Each structure stands twice: as C-alpha cells, then as structure tokens.
Amino acid sequence: MRMLKWAGVAALALTVGGTAQAEKIKIGVVLPFSGANADLGHQVDKAFDLYIKLHAKDIAPHTIEIVKRDEGPPTGANAKTVATELITNDKVQILTGFVFSPSAIALAPVVTQAKVPMVIANAGTAWITNLSPYIARLSFSMWHHGYPMGAYAFDKIGCKTAALAYTDFPPGKDSTEAFKTGFEKAGGKVTESIPLGSPVQVPDFTPFFQRIKDSKPDCMYVFIPSGAHATGVTKAYGELGMRKAGIKLIGPMDLIPDNKLQDMGDAAIGTIVMGNYAVDLDNAENKAFNAAWHKEYGANSYPDFMSAAGWDTMHAIFDTIKKLNGNVTDGAKFIDAMKGWKTKSPRGDVMIDPDTRDIVQDEHAMEVIRKPDGKLGVKVLGTTKAVKDECKVLKLGRCGT
Amino acid sequence: MPQFAIIAVSILFDGLAYAMFLFITSVGLSVTMGLMGFVNLAHGAFAMAGGYIVVSLTRDLGIGFVPSLLIAAVLVGLISVVFERGLYRRLYKATDLEQVLLTIGLAFMAIATATYFYGPIPKSVPLPLWLQGDINLGFRSFPSYRAFLIVLGIALISVLWYAFERTNIGAKIRAAVDNRRMAESVGINVDLLFTLTFALGSALAALGGGLAIQLFGLSPSFAVLYLVLFLIVVAVGGLGSLKGTLLAALVIGVIDTGGKYLYAEAGGFFIYAITIVVLLIKPAGFYGRE
User: Fold this and answer.
1) Total domains present in chain B
2) B234 Rama sector, left if φ>0, alpha if ψ -120 to 50, beta otherwise
3) Which fold is adopted by the domain A3-140+282-357?
4) Which of residues 130-189 of A touch B (CB under 8 A)?
5) Is the dihedral of CA A367, A301, A32, B219 positive or negative?
6) Is B184 exposed, middle or buried (0-12, 13-18, 19+ CB in 10 A)?
7) Out of B122, B256, B257, whose CB is closest to A263?
8) Where do the structural domains in chain A lie, given as residue ranges?
9) What are A291-303's pLDDT values in tens digits?
10) pLDDT in tens, B184-218
C-alpha cells in the first residue's frame, strides 16, 4: 500500500493576540493510486493538489493537513479498510476522494457511525447520497447524464431504437437505467441491454458489439468506467465499422475522458455524450482552470470531468472551513454548512442541493469533433441548466428511501 | 447465406483472431513452465514491454508497425536472456512460492516502470492503411487487422510446429520436457535449451503485446491483467505442450467469443466455465501429463 503524506500546507504561525484561533484541519483523501485505475485517482488528486496550492491562503489562519490513502480496486474492500484507519488512527475530520461507487457504498455506515463528513469527488451511483446524512457529493449522479440523454437521443439525435451496453457494477446499471427511463418516456425503444463483464476484466468488446451491430439499432448507449475500457470501446466500435453501418455511439461523458481523447483517434469522432464538463467548455472559470493546470502539469496533461469535480470538491471543503471559521469538529454541522453551497465552477453553475446533499449542475450534450488545430475536442450541442439527480426527484427504487 | 451460418462464420472469425492472440502470447509461458517447471508470472510484463517498444518505435521514431513488431520481439527476446541468466536461473531449484514472489515482484516493477515512462493512460499505435479498413466478403465484412492476426498466427504456428516436430533442437526440447534427467544424462544441454526457449517465448509474448495494442489498448496494468488469460490458456492446454496451447487457445477464443455474442447477458462467464469443465475432466489440461 502506498502511503503519501502531504503535510504542512501553508504552515502559518499563530497570529499573536489574534481573535481567531488557527486550526489545523486533517483531511483524509482516498483515491486509487495503484493498479489499473491509478490514472483516475491521479486525475482527481492533481486537481486537489492544484486547488490547495493556489488557495491555501484563503483559509488562513487555518491550515490543512492532507493524508492520502490508496482506494485500491473498484470493489470497496480496500477503501473501507483505509478510510476506517483514517478515521480511527489518523483522526481525520473530513474524508474526500472516492472514485468508485462500491467504495462509497461500503463506507457509508462507517461515516454515519463516526459522524465524519464524506465529501464525494466522483462515485456516481445515484442512491449513494441516501446512505448516510454525512455524505455530500460534488461530482454527479449517473442520472445527471443518463436521464437527460434519453430524451435528447430520441428528440435530437434521432435514436428511435437503442441497444444498451454497460460494465456490470452499480454505476453501470444505474447509468443504463437512467437512460432507459428517459428514453422510453420520450418514446424510444430499447432493443437489448448487455452487461460487458466486470470493471477488472480484459476489455474485449468485439463479440458484444458485433451482436449489437447485427441487430441494427439506431444508437448504442454505452457506460464504462472512464479508464482503459473507454479506449477499448472506441477501438471495437471503430474496428467493426459500426458508424458506417449507421449505429451512433452515445453515452455519458465517461466514454470520452478528456485526457484519453487524443489517443482514441478518428473512431471517436461523431460520438455524442451528455456530461457536466469538457476542457473545451467556453467559460472564464474553465479557461483559468485549464491555464493553471497546464502551468502546473505541462501542456500535454489535460484535466477531465473527474478533475473538474475534484477541483470543486476542494473548493466546497475550503469554503465550508471558512464559513465555520475552522471549527469542523462537528461532522453534522459541517455537512449542514455545506448545504446550499454554490459557485461558478469550470463546469458552469453548481450548487449543493440542501435537500439531497447532491450536486445541481448544468448538463451539456457534446459531440466529438476534429478541431482546427488537428486535435480532437468536443462541440457543445446544447445545455440544460440546473439539472438535479432525477432518480431522487422521481424517487425510483433505492433513490426513494 | 442463411443468418445462422453468417453468425457462425462471424463468431469463428472473431474467435480465431482472439485465439491467435492468446496462442502467440501464451505459448512461451507453457513451454518454459513445462521445461523447467518454472512459474514465470512476469510473462505478461515481457508482453507489455513488447507493446510499449512498439508504441515508441511507431510513434516517436516513425518506424512502420510491422517492422516495429519484429524489432520489439527481438529486443525483448534478448532482454529476457539477461533476466534469465541474471535472476531466474538462481531459483530453478527453489520452491514454487519463491519463484512466484520473484516473478510477480518483477511484474509489479514493470508496471511501475511503464507508468513512470509512459504514464497510466492507454496508448494506441498508428496502423498502416492496409490494416485499417475491412475486407468485404459480400455477406459480411471483416476487419483487416483481425484477418492479419489470423494469417500471422497460422504462419507462426506452422513455423513453430516444424521447429518443434521436425528439427533436432525441437526433438531435444521435447525430450527435455518429457524427462529432464534422462535428457541431461544423454548429453543434452538443458540449461542452454531453456535459455533459448525462454528467449523465444518472451519474444513471442512481446509480439503478442504489440498485437494487443490495437485490440484492447495498452496500459501499464497489462502485465497483470492479461496474465490471468495466459495462465488459463496454459492450464487448459497442459504444461509444455505446443498442441495443447493451440487447442486451448482455439477452444477458449471461439467459445468465449461465441458465448459473448449469443448469450451476451452471461458473456463474461464463459471463459471460466470452459476452464472449470476442462480441468474437472482433465486436471492436467488437454495434453498435460497426469
């Protein structure tokens, strides 16, 4: 297990005779730093580090100490162990990170018992926020992308029929369920729904996609975690000539993570996704975010939607520390103070819904294009403002409890 | 052509291409395990090294894809000799556990090294035009890359079969796999044979790694993620058997592809089902010695 300590950010002396007492706040970061999904962890971690570096002074005189732990594989077991250690041994006051839904799901009862706020920077299974009053989520629910994509695919992309394919773990089922609900409500017909194996299996998608190609739906909606599998999807789709056969590739933005897009090649062009972020989003905050990112990590390193959520996560934590003037020992109070938090983020306007502690954000329909500079990028086709997690709005299944 | 025949041809084609990849990458592992009883869990790391060499050669030096595959295979073959002479040979008489610890350690080091130099993001390679399109047979079109994989696989199998069954050195290898002590006592230099087969096996693995980039993409996790596949092929085929590895690769490739196509809901399960069934009936694999 890797152990990373990032201590003493902006170490400041106590202000002599000052009124505010300088608190040192311990934050536990749990992200996948090893194994097949290490790059996902790094996308979030780089955003965390960058935000802390640029904004440590904002919370003065208070300082933070970050303790990083490896989330491990997408099964939840390792995350639960290390996060429990963070709470009991390291006595962290706030937990954040969590790329995989199983990690967040496994940990929910622990944070409820320990009364430690858990600020989720990625894990997107819709009902996670219902599992504990100590959970707030800055990233998205799978329904944020999947549900509006259903109606959009039927009305705007021209999908009358669609085949669904998903990685067989909670967010995969969630994403396809979200799409299916929106799509069928709009009048579309789902031809079949195929599980693509677990997230730790070799990404051999050809036989599945060949089957879909032979059944000739208008569109193929695919959810995979945004790691190596995303590249595998574009490869198989391109190799089988499915676009030429008239089957459009659509999905949540996990299909085309910004940091992997350049390596996907022409096969990715024309893919239409629904999502909350792309490096090509045209707003001032995003331009500043990208500029800071490239300055810190080089011209060939790109942030992606996970980084944007990581950035906002740290932003929300910092703002809440400021609001409470460093007094974060009461977990319930911390979460309460976070409710209704809003800002203009690189993603657009975001807010934490006071009722559900989940994010409210803009959703963009985006198409992959070849940009004038020869690089791949996305064009925003349309934006829906202030989208809530529809699963909790409709109170479907576990979202209703 | 009736629909079921088209589907059958399609499954056979995809399955065969998959089988060729499995055979090329696994055969070295099978022979070295059969010959020395050495458990080489770093086999996937050699395959991955081949893949990354191909990435560097094609993308940074502008060398063609096919020549890059050959260069990568030769380079990795040579590098593997260094590992074999320097590290592996010390543990030939050691227990399985010590061998496993050494080689899995090497695999993890390989992952870290690849991440350091190439980053964790999956890589792709530029392919020549003739490998990019598809071949249209009227009733169905097939990706030319997979056709290339099948042709290459068949060519390699023929060469290996000839070398194994018809040459002097092949006979020595077979003799050493069958009974190492006896082979040594009639004057066969098993040590040298092993170094040779080890290098050849690693070179083939590197070739397979290079070929895999276009199929699945290449990331540092390759070294361990795909190892499971190779071990399944070796276990099902039987240690040290060329025939067995080929048969196992074909059975697994075609049934896995067919299962995923026809019963997509249970897709991921087929490869394990075959393994369990085969090993229940023949615990040493198709051609392994019981």
Assistant:
1) 1
2) alpha
3) Rossmann fold (3.40.50)
4) 168
5) positive
6) middle
7) B122
8) 3-140+282-357, 143-275+362-400
9) 999 999 999 889 9
10) 999 999 889 889 999 999 999 999 999 999 888 88
